[in-house]
């Protein structure tokens, strides 16, 4: 299936959350290039508006994904620019640390933004697709961390695992023509990664897998899921296989943890 809108006088729109920078901006740029009227949202409303102006998006909107009603507002805004046919739940936070180390505030933020924000977005998108009677795609930015044990990212990984699960279930629950997909990238060179605890276990594990992905690589894969039959996509694919194997035998994987952490810390030192 083509990922471009069908030739028509009727404009087609999409929503990209967390679009002011990073992966979200990369997705929005590609959707603008494909002819979509893009509503780009971010908790940083000024940043969203500035990015929308820079890339030619239809509108930049202040949007806190923790608020269920704000998703309906984003859907309505997109509907004013064209028929909503795609929604990217990309907004997220990446607090690292073990479950015991993280503050109560950090735990709630991870769950409310990453998981609840994605589910509220899915509900708004499904409601809009049903109301219009049109086909539509929902692409959720999950993480490779959601496919297996990632000590040092335990709560973050739990939210991403839940996103993978709700994506698979949601794809089955919705009518034919509404597709729900989950993208699971390895570490990506973004501000979120740069803000991780220096020398932390989570950061070391991210860097243990080799080259850090670029925003452009991940944004291209996200847009590539439009119309795809693939429900869950890992980037890179081989790394997804490794993490899934570790999930099947977590006690065995734990014995090699020290080696991976040491490898990651060496990689960080080389790139410092």
Automatic annotation (TrEMBL):
Q: Which domain of life is it from?
A: Bacteria
Q: Which residues form the signal peptide?
A: none
- Pfam families listed in its UniProt record: adh_short
Q: Which Gene3D superfamilies match?
A: NAD(P)-binding Rossmann-like Domain (3.40.50.720)
Keywords, alphabetical: Oxidoreductase
- Family label: Belongs to the short-chain dehydrogenases/reductases (SDR) family.
Question: What name does the UniProt record give this protein?
Answer: SDR family oxidoreductase
Origin species, per record, is Nocardioides koreensis
């Amino acid at each position: 299936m083509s990922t471009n809108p069908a030739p028509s006088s009727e404009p087609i729109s999409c929503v990209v959350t967390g679009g002011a920078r990073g992966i979200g901006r990369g997705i929005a740029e590609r959707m603008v290039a494909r002819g979509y009227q893009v509503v780009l949202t971010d908790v940083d409303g000024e940043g969203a508006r500035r990015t929308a102006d820079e890339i030619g998006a239809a509108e930049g909107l202040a949007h806190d994904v923790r608020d269920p009603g704000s998703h309906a507002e984003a859907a309505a805004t997109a509907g004013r620019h064209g028929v909503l046919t795609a929604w990217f739940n990309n907004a997220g936070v990446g607090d690292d640390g073990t479950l015991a180390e993280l503050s109560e505030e950090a735990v709630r933020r991870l769950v409310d933004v990453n998981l609840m924000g994605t589910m509220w977005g899915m509900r708004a998108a499904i409601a809009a697709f049903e109301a219009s009677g049109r086909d539509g795609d929902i692409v959720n930015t999950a993480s490779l961390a959601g496919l297996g044990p990632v000590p040092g990212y335990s709560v973050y990984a739990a939210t991403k695992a839940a996103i993978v699960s709700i994506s698979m279930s949601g794809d089955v629950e919705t009518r034919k023509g509404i597709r729900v997909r989950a993208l699971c990238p390895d570490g990506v060179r973004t501000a979120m990664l740069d803000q991780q605890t220096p020398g932390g276990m989570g950061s070391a594990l991210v860097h243990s897998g080799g080259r850090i992905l670029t925003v452009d690589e991940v944004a291209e894969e996200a847009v590539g899921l439009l119309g795809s039959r693939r429900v869950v996509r890992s980037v890179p694919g081989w790394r997804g296989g490794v993490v899934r194997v570790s999930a099947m035998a977590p006690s065995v994987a734990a014995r090699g943890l020290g080696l991976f952490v040491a490898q990651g810390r060496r990689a960080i030192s080389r790139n410092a």
